[in-house]
Write a structure and sequence with these properties.
- By secondary structure, the chain is an alpha/beta fold.
- 41% of the residues lie in helices and 7% in strands.
- Helix 3 packs antiparallel against helix 4 (128-147) and helix 3 (92-115) crosses helix 6.
- The chain starts with 23 loop residues before the first helix and ends in a 19-residue tail after the last strand.
- Pathway: Lipid metabolism; Phospholipid metabolism.
- Keywords: Acyltransferase, Lipid biosynthesis, Lipid metabolism, Membrane, Phospholipid biosynthesis, Phospholipid metabolism, Transferase, Transmembrane, Transmembrane helix.
């Protein structure tokens, strides 16, 4: 066995490094590097500012794809408007509610009597007394809307005959007050079956012979389309069908995608546009808003 031991390093003396004195050439090189770095940074900054300004100009010149949410409706009242609403809620509103309820109850026996013994599938000519009840109901419902605050309803254009356009498409759909053109024309509508069980109002809905949608039936959509086809192709013997193709209420800031049910029969369709001349827009009913 052999062990070899080396010498112990006690530390070597560091040699003093000679410090070089900066020469004028080295100073000029350092300054040149600094100026080159600053120039590159300035070019990057200028390119970034130019690209951002051009992007802002292009975004302002082209219409933005991001629009308003059609399902949100928010109201902002001034102090004067709040005081007006508070005052009319205890003075005018109870009177209007009483008159609207009176005319609705007055219309119920007419609708109930005219609906007795009437088939929902067999096409039959309307007798003189049913036509008289139809006229009475239009007058009563118009008086009801008048008492509710809709004093003047302006109609532009002419309504097409059922044989010419069996389907009326109404848009935008934004409120329960969209029932006004239904009561003025007594057209049939497409509605859910649960609407027929509403007291008083359900009888009025059943009178106009609507196309009921059974939500519990998985085949309800096909049956609804077939019923619309059958009525639309009757040659004007059935009442016109008034359809809200959007299928839901929006805030009228834009139209949403239409459902295809009104256009599947392939028959002429008359478009109808609804407008409410309400500065505060207190009639809109959306999923997020004062009436949600």
């Amino acid at each position: 066995m052999e062990f070899t031991c080396g010498k112990v390093d006690r530390g070597l003396k560091k040699k003093k490094e000679k410090t070089r004195k900066p020469t004028p050439q080295n100073k000029r090189g350092q300054l040149r590097n600094i100026f080159n770095t600053l120039g590159v940074l300035f070019l990057f900054l200028f390119a970034w500012v130019f690209a951002r300004s051009s992007a802002m100009k292009s975004s302002n010149s082209r219409p933005s794809r991001v629009g308003r949410n059609p399902f949100i409706h928010e109201l902002k009242f001034t102090l004067r408007e709040k005081l007006k609403i508070g005052l009319m809620s205890v003075t005018v509103f109870p009177v209007r509610l009483l008159l609207v309820s009176f005319f609705m109850l007055l219309a119920w026996p007419f609708a109930f009597t005219a609906s007795l013994g009437r088939s929902e599938f067999v096409i039959e000519p309307q007798s003189w007394w049913r036509r008289f009840i139809d006229l009475c109901l239009r007058v009563i419902m118009r008086a009801m809307w008048f008492c509710g605050g809709f004093h003047w309803i302006k109609v532009k254009g002419e309504r097409a005959a059922p044989s010419e356009a069996p389907i009326l498409t109404v848009a935008p759909h934004s409120s329960y007050f969209d029932a006004i053109p239904v009561t003025m024309t007594m057209c049939s509508i497409v509605t859910k079956l649960e609407s027929s069980s509403i007291p008083v109002w359900g009888t009025l809905i059943s009178y106009i012979r609507p196309v009921f949608v059974f939500r519990s039936d998985q085949d309800s959509r096909r049956k609804t389309v077939e019923e619309i086809k059958r009525r639309a192709r009757s040659g004007g013997q059935w009442p016109q069908i008034m359809i809200f193709p959007e299928g839901t209420c929006t805030n009228r800031s834009g139209l949403i995608l239409y459902k295809a049910g009104a256009f599947i029969p392939g028959l002429p369709v008359q478009p109808v546009v609804l407008r409410y001349r309400n500065k505060l827009d207190t009639v809109t009913w959306t999923w997020q808003g004062p009436a949600a």
